[in-house]
Amino acid sequence: MHELPLVFFTVLTQSAVGAYLLLLLWQSRQPVGTDRCASIKLLGVVALFALGGVMGSVHLGQPLRALNMLAGVGRSPMSNEIVLSGMFIACAGLGALLRWRQAAPGLSRGLLGVAVPVGLLFVWTVPQIYQLDTVPHWASGHVTLMHLLTVFTGGGALASLLGVTWARWVMGLGIVAALTSKLGYAAFIASSGGAALAAVTGLWQLQTALLALALLLAARHEPKWLPALVAVAVIAAELLGRIAFYDLWQIGM
Q: Which residue ranges does UniProt annotate as crossing the membrane (predicted)?
């Protein structure tokens, strides 16, 4: 599948932004002296975002082509996506590194704070790339909602894995919203013909099963490795859903 790098790019980066936001909120309520441990977790999330960015660059064939795409900053969603992803890595990564080293606390707080709107703007920008009239199954608000909800589902699962216990509730709300909105998206796709819906139904069924499993497991507190299994199930489900999304491009064309 030619779009597989984009599948990992969108899911990993959006999940990482969600986990970053939840970790930052959790960290703000922790007692003094836990900064170093929390900062390592933030660095791990930023590394995951960077990994997603590297995987996404593979789709360009020659990753250096990303430099040529910077010419469209401000008018091209794809150019904006590249700039915002770089800004997020720089601000969040440097801010977390400074906090881990307990250096320049004012600058660290500022960088970590700036990374919040940058990350959210990045998440919003990504689905705007796919609002194409030439691909009828993409030109819908359902696509934007699908990408935004990954912040809650994937981000909540990762944050829970990293010790933010209440993040599983965020993940749960995201899963319920994602499954509910899928009904509307299915109806939208079916309105333009049943072939497209039939082609992605199998992947959507697997995705639904994994998300339902994650909900059931998240309701339990033991054993301690359960959050890891939940995170794997949620990320796998998001990847399946994103594969189905990109398959709609071929069907639509």
A: 6-26, 38-58, 78-98, 110-130, 142-162, 169-190, 196-218, 225-245
Measured between its terminal Cα atoms, the distance across the chain in Å is 16
Which helix (H) or strand (E) is 203 found in, with range? Answer: helix 194-218
pLDDT band (50, 70, 90) for residue 159: very high
Tens digits of per-residue pLDDT, 15-30? Answer: 999 999 999 999 877 6
Residue type, 12: L
String of DSSP letters for 144-176: HHHHHHHHHHHHHHHHHHTT-TTHHHHHHHHHH
Q: Which long-range contacts (CB under 8 A, 24 or more apart) does 76-83 make?
A: 77/125, 77/126, 77/128, 77/129, 78/129, 80/125, 81/122, 81/125, 81/126, 81/129
Residues 6+ positions from 203 with CB-CB distance below 8 Å: 240, 241, 243, 244, 247
Predicted structure pTM score: 0.91
The 3-state DSSP composition of the chain as helix, strand, coil percent (nearest 5) reads 80, 0, 20
Residues 6+ apart with CB under 8 A from 250: none
Q: How does residue 68 score in pLDDT terms, banded at 50, 70 and 90?
A: low
User: Mean pLDDT, to the nearest integer, of 175-191?
Assistant: 90
